[in-house]
Amino acid sequence: MELVELLDPQGIVPSLKAKSKKQALRELSERAAEICGIDSQLILDALLDRERLGTTGVGQGVALPHAKLEEAERLFGIFARLDQPIDFDSIDERPVDLIFLLIAPEDAGAEHLRALARISRLLRNTEFCAKLRGSSHDAALYALLTDSAASSSAA
Fold first, then answer.
1. Tell me, what's the pLDDT at 142?
2. Which of 110, 115, 98, 85 is nearest to 4 (CA)?
3. Which of 14, 47, 74, 85 is deepest in the core (most CB within 10 A)?
4. How far apart, in whole angstroms, are the C-alpha atoms of residue 39 and residue 29?
């Protein structure tokens, strides 16, 4: 699954100003609600429930919060680059400055896992993450994330 299938240009937040994990998730839930029409509180509650199971801060400054929602009609993502890194209870205890949020339909078992794996492989690439960190424009970030040649070589 290519990221162009998951991301809309409106799903890019090039300069998220958040002071905490909860604030970041709240703001990203609001952006997701604008895109998919699902109530932002439902999205936030699902994300927080998932975080209670274990952190989605995967290390190296990256977090992959995700949730399944009955109301979701398709898989979709939101990417955010934070102005300042925040504590996300990451497994390596480093603050997070790159967040890729994924929302999936309740019945998207394998498809959801494949999308998470794809995003995870991409964001484990330190050179690719450096490019993301070096860009502050939504169009440039969208292009980086959805360019299949670049994202395939990073995977």
1. 95
2. 115
3. 47
4. 9
Distance between CA atoms of residues 38 and 152, nearest Å: 31
- Show the low-confidence residues of the chain (pLDDT under 50): 149, 151-155
Most distant CA pair in the chain, distance: 37
Domain range summary for the chain, segments of one domain joined by +: 3-150
Crossing angle of helices 126-133 and 109-123, in 10° steps, is: 80
CA angle 153, 57, 100 (to 5 degrees): 50
Architecture of domain 3-150: 3-Layer(aba) Sandwich (3.40)
Q: Is 66 a catalytic residue?
A: yes
Bridge partner list, 67 = 103
Residue 141 near residue 79 (C-beta atoms within 8 A): yes
| Catalytic residue (one of 21, 31, 66, 112) | 66
Q: What is the pTM of this model?
A: 0.93
Neighbours of 1 (CB within 10 A): 12
Cite the DSSP H helix spans in the chain: 21-36, 40-53, 109-123, 126-133, 138-146, 148-154
